[in-house]
Amino acid sequence: MNKFLILLTLLIFISNCSLKKVEKHHGVYNLEKKSDKLELFQTNTNDVIVKLGIPSTKSLFDNDVWIYMERKYTTTKLSSLGKENLLINNVLVLEFNNKGMLVKKELLKIDKMNNLRISDSKTSVVNKKESFINNFLTSLRKKINDPLGVKKAK
Predict the structure, then answer these.
(1) Alpha-carbon span 100 to 95, nearest angstrom
(2) Element (H or E) spanning 70, and its range?
(3) pLDDT tens digits, residue range 43-82?
(4) Per-residue pLDDT at 84
C-alpha cells in the first residue's frame, strides 16, 4: 500500500511537469517578416494599420513617427530559478510624411541594442529647501508618535 501511494504521488508530480518551454510573446508577431512587406513611398498609413495593426507608440513632431514592438522571452531551466531569457526584441520605427506616405523605416534588432550598466552611486540634492508646511507636518507627526518626548532622537 505504501509503495502504491509513493508511486501515485510521483506520477502526479511528473505528470504536472511540462517538457515544453513556455514562451511569452508581446507585441506584433513576426515583425521582421511583416516589415519587409512595407515599401517606401508606396505604403500609406492605412496599409500599415491593415498589415501591422495599431502602433504601440505614436509621436507627432515634424513628421508622424509610429513605433511597433515585438518581444519574446522564455523561462530558463529550473537550476537558474526560472530566470527569463530574452529571445527576440525587435523595434520597428516608421516615419510618415504629411500626406501619410511611408518615408523611412528602421528595424532595430536585439543585437543592435546597447548593454547598459546602471551606476550604484547616489546623487545628493544640492539645494534642498523645505517649505513651512513640510516642517510643520513633520513636527506634528513627531509629536503624535511621541507625545511625552520619551523616545530618543537618533
Answers:
(1) 9
(2) strand 64-75
(3) 999 999 999 999 988 887 766 899 999 999 887 666 566 6
(4) 78
